[in-house]
Amino acid sequence: MSKYFIGVDVGSGSARAGVFNVLGEKLALAVSPIMQFRPKTDFVEQSSTDIWLQVCNVVKRAVAESKVSVDHIVGIGFDATCSLVALGADDQPISISPSLLNNQNIIMWMDHRAIEEAKEINATGDEALKYVGGEVSPEMELPKILWIKKYLPQQYQKITKFFDLADFLVYRSTSLPIRSVCTKSCKWNYLAHKNQWANSLLEKIDLKDIVEEGKVEGPIYDIGTAAGNLTEKAAVELGLTINTIVSTGIIDAHAGGLAIIGDDPESTLAIIGGTSSCHMAVVKKELFVPGIWGPYWGAMLPGYWLLEGGQSAAGSLIDHIIKNSAQYPALRQRSELEGRTVYEILNGKVAELEANNPALMMNFHMLGYHHGNRSPRADSTLKGMVSGLSLNEDLDELAIHYLAGIQSVAFGTRHIIETMAQNGHQITQINMCGGGTKNPLWLREHANITGCEVVLSKEPEAVLLGAAMLGATASSFYTSLESAIKNMSSEGKRILPNVDKTKFYNAKYQVFLEMYEDQIKYQNMMTKI
To answer: How many Å apart are CA 524 and CA 519, to the nearest integer?
Structure first.
């Protein structure tokens, strides 16, 4: 009997499901949008009810498209953004929103309401903070939980279970509160190398009750471990059978990292791009890099410590630049008429401008910290900066801003790579997946600016493939996650850096670094008033 696996990915804006065979070949894909709520500035929320409904929708559609018998689907893996889910008695959603609407029971990863709570946690100087690069981010779960306890105390008392979103999907599928070493290490300050919670830290910030009162109860398993079989209810809702085995969950970026890390993981940086970007590196020996999250033991690849960098705005920065241009309405209309994406049109304009002016970006620079800096500066309060503005509002000007945004993201990647190198970890190759890989200009600038070869996965939906690998391992088709990776992933196209432009990019990189120093200088000047 042929066997198949399903990978489910819940991103910031959509739920997706893919059906894969034992060689990692995708047979079908289905996508469905999910809701977001923005009750206040920097507040971004979702609904676990809506997400589960859309997960069921995409799984059913993907299976139908694949024409695979549900009896042959033996494993399923879930990945999701590192968002916080709150449930109450009888597993009903509990609002974490100032709106107090129970449908809004998820604080999204990108929500920055808990900046002050993150500062409060960091001010403890607790030993556990060593394992998040020295500082927690407001994108992590403890600051969010502390915010709820402070500002929504009645809601907090109603909450009986907190989950990372990937773990919630496992729980919803199996009725078992099985949690993942990936989610707990990377976002909850769980010390996987000691198999224990950071009790000292929890006590200092008055959150020991989440453990003592069972709000985070349940065993914490390695990724790729069987969490259990689908319940009868979940099997009906997903259109599968109770014989399908559910893997422990994983964060979406880490699922992508699994699928693309390759045969030489210690010299490779896996970049998983989307709204934000995650930069994954693995090492055999414990290594601390300031401003880089981790080291986390076994959080992405068994037997390795994980170092995790990232950028809070990657694809979202580029979309922001485009949509805030006076040219956007006309560009969108042209895109529809010509049947080309706005990125294809802008790439063509960039090529035209560069052909006429090889020094096009000599005097236009951008620091893309529009949503703060995740790493290596680890400062969510930082802002974006631009040098070289004019009064032009034509498509040429938008193309320059667009290219500057891509370059800023790539310079951020270079900054992460150089910070790792300064602390003893050398990267020689970038393996990349995500939406940006469809954009040749994105790939070109990352190769040129970092000086690294950029390697793509043969399977463009690498995040889904990584989730399916978990299902393949949990179902025991593959005896280990390493075996699933070896047999289900394969390398695609390579992009080489243009060494003739090294001097130009080196100079622009120095401007990129200097712009940050200028921003801090301006802040200091204004605080003296």
So the answer is: 9
Spatial separation of the C-alpha atoms in residues 88 and 39, rounded to whole Å: 22
Taking the C-alpha atoms of residue 414 and residue 382, their distance in angstroms, rounded to an integer, is: 18
- Cβ–Cβ < 8 Å for 248, 227: yes
* Distance (Å, whole) CA 210 – CA 515: 42
Q: What is the identity of the amino acid at 283?
A: V
Q: Cα-flanking dihedrals φ and ψ of residue 79, to 5°?
A: -125, 160
Residue 161 and residue 177: Cα distance in Å, rounded?
A: 9
Helix spans in 357-457 (H): 395-422, 440-450
Q: How confident is the model at residue 406 (pLDDT cuts 50, 70, 90)?
A: very high
- 3-class DSSP state for residue 140? coil
Select from 183, 182, 157, 180 the least CA-distant residue to 86: 157
8-state DSSP, 47? -
How buried is residue 366: exposed, middle or buried, by Cβ count under 10 Å (0-12/13-18/19+)? buried
Query: Which residues fall within 8 angstroms of residue 250, CB to CB, at 6 or more apart?
Result: 77, 78, 79, 166, 180, 182, 183, 223, 258, 300, 466, 467, 470
pLDDT in tens, 432-458: 998 889 999 999 999 999 999 999 999
Q: At what angle do helices 115-122 and 141-151 cross, to 10 degrees?
A: 110
Global pTM value:
0.89
Cα angle vertex 341, ends 340, 344, to 5°? Answer: 85
